[in-house]
From TrEMBL:
InterPro entries the record matches: AB_hydrolase_1, AB_hydrolase_fold, AB_hydrolase_sf
Keyword Glycoprotein: no
Gene3D superfamilies: alpha/beta hydrolase
UniProt KW keywords: Hydrolase
Name the UniProt record assigns to this protein: 2-hydroxy-6-oxonona-2,4-dienedioate hydrolase
Molecular function terms from GO: hydrolase activity
Amino acid sequence: MTLPEEPNDAVGGIEMTLLEETDMTLAETIWTELTGTEFRITTVDAGGVPTRSLQAGSGEPVIFLHGTSGHLEAFTRNLGAHADRYACHAIDMLGHGYTGKPDYPYEIPRYRDHLLAYMDAVGIESAHIVGESLGGWVGARTAIDVPDRIASLQLLCAGGTVANPQVMERIRTSTREAVSRDDVELTRARMRLLMADPVDATEELVAVRHAIYHQPDFVENIDNLLCLQNMEVRLRNVLRPEHLAQITVPTLVVWGRNNPFGEVPEANAMHEAIAGSELVLFDECGHWPQHEQAARYNELSLEFLAKHPAP
């Protein structure tokens, strides 16, 4: 099936509206970070779930997966560099962004199945996975369950290996408040929580997330999206060392030393459990290393991908 494209000039129209509303400079905008990169934003039917996807480049496929309550804009500082060598797919995951929001709890097997359905829909047999936070959890689970579909795995401040009540409460409370109240300050606070330097939570990112948070279907499904912050649900989805030990694909673990949702020992434990994995710690970095220190991350990622071409 041929899917409709959204032309770049339509995206440019959105960009100009945002510039006018937020009085930002061109250097600070999401879409100007993709200047010079041919891309399209489209909707893919992934097993019956309409899935928003930004696609760019050609070559071995790399799929970028965001974190809890996130969206594909988490990777706009990375797609241009990667699209020079790879076929990039940044998607809004199940129940997130502008992807469909079916009415059931979004546990990790559901995310895994949605990822696989997306891969099937666009004809990807095996992909490199870049997973940030929840996206890393989903990527790791998929690499455990169907390793032949995963060429390599990058875990960027990946979640899912511990069940810390304080962190879970922080995620649940900050997200629910920002969604339930139409106050952009709450969305801004939620975005700044991710970053070591609040400047990296740009006003455009805040505007994009605020719009997403206040879609009627997003509000209606917030309990489904936050189910992994419930202790009982989380414990039946958590990845324990014996699970991580089953990961056989090349794996890179990247962690921010100022990550508000997980301390460095979690990264060390991941690295120790996954045989042959690499671990890189970013100083002065929070929960979005690919965004906060994009130039360093892009170089690191491209070196890793070059060392581990798909079979």
